[in-house]
């Protein structure tokens, strides 16, 4: 027997050239080939009478050859073979192009099973290049559920089927990794049956059962791996914080915390006092008060003589955190420093010297925190704000500057809890699902270009009342092909034509860092009435005086991104508004945007976005560490994901260290998965 790890070149018909073609599909070993699953199936088990064949709808039918096939040479490189076939209902003319096999195999007076689609002016007129098999042959392309595989240039579906069948005949399928008790509980097929059925199902129902098994398997392996990682980290020992008294911190606040904030802080306090490194995600909607939760953790670090570092994705956000936290902590005797890339060499050198000497308790900064020049005396707490903006490796790089420091990551991108457990599977999750009292909702409207005069009038009214406005465009510069509103050109139109008497500023990602800081500084100080920008303002912009957000071509954004943009207004005491514009008339698009207008609940929006767009809008790049699931879909298979997570957690508790064949195989598969998914390992 061959091994799953053997190269595909051991298969008959796979030489160097064919191997290069298969490599385009990431198929290098027999395992890769057997795990190259169909993307769809065609049900060719049902035979249709000729008179019932529908135009352009492929189907199988049984018919007798009514004459000897005749081949005509039309021109160089083109031969046509024609033949008449019939059943008890009708006749049909078949045409084959450059197919000597058809001319030689189709015999007058014999019956065959054909598969193809009729075409012409009426049903039954003709059929071109149907596939066919004799009645007594083993079903290969007819009378079966035919798998349809992802392909590449130089590889046909039939050729790939043949290779997979050959591989399945000479080696065992992947080992069983799901314990029998779990399979029985959730109605999961055994591995050998599932791998056989996914490629050669006896029915569509069996194909679905096989697919469900493989989806469950992928989720089970990944979830079990994350559980093992959490268990491993829980075994690490650090000195518990002895001082967990938050009364001085809470007493200094000019407001009361919400119940959700208090719950999150209580969870953090328990983490810091249990003698193992904290690994926690604090997830909350825009304006829910995550910073105060992080501040409580930083306070406890300082009072336990540990340094804390808060890493923000932009200098604007870092400076805002520094300003607010300095105001909060200085009266409490806690020293706060700022470290960003745009600071002068002299300034950075001075701050870094204070960090290394232990003369600062909390350092707020950007990526400058993780450079080799930054050395901490005793880093005990790492806080990563807007974690999805960092590669997970950067999170690890900052943590590496201490000895198993506690880790707290914050995200204002609402993510359904199930997906949060995937994206941050090695972290415990705290959710702040309550807004501070007095925080008003933002009224949101969806309009077309016909409302432009009213939009402009509303912008002017907001400015006349002493407020400021954002106008967000999906593009930086005009692109005729996409026909999207461009920030550069639109800012000029607004300034020169629509609002010549107002101050219009422009901000986009292609500007230099210093330019962006200067523009945001002007807007924050009220020196510009309207800020025309791209999504660069999505995170880290806090201007309480801004009360109106106009989002152009809103259909170009995901709902979660729209929610982040909308979160830039409604941060003060005045009533705030968000206006979405779109040219798109697609019913699904309009439905999606109308659903967004009806709620300010980021978690409901995230669930809706997940249904409509899948997880991409939450996770973006591969930095997230998510594996490339082959069969599973995070947007379609959530119940299976939940089942697999529950099953894997129970397995870890009861059999995680067992020496059974399933447990051994599962640990091997976990290692293989995480070695490919580098992000999760960081």
Structure summary:
The chain is α/β, with parallel strands linked by helices and 682 residues long.
Keywords, separated by commas or semicolons:
single chain; 8-stranded mixed sheet; alpha/beta; 5 domains; 682 residues; OB fold (Dihydrolipoamide Acetyltransferase, E2P)
Describe the structure.
The chain is of the alpha/beta class and 682 residues long. It folds into 5 domains: 8-40 and 162-205, no CATH class; 46-143, Beta Barrel (OB fold (Dihydrolipoamide Acetyltransferase, E2P)), CATH 2.40.50.140; 215-235 and 629-654 and 661-681, no CATH class; 247-432, Rossmann fold (3-Layer(aba) Sandwich), CATH 3.40.50; 443-599, P-loop containing nucleotide triphosphate hydrolases (Rossmann fold), CATH 3.40.50.300. It is built from 24 helices and 23 strands. α6 (191-199) crosses α7 (204-234) and α9 packs parallel to α10 (290-303).
Provide the number of structural domains: 5
Low-pLDDT stretches:
616-625, 678-682
Query: In CATH's first tier, which class of the largest domain applies?
Result: Alpha Beta
Task: Write the CATH homologous superfamily of the largest domain.
Answer: P-loop containing nucleotide triphosphate hydrolases
Query: Count the helices. How many?
Result: 24
Structural class: alpha/beta
CATH architecture annotation of the largest domain: 3-Layer(aba) Sandwich
- Between the first and last Cα atoms, what is the distance in angstroms? 38 Å
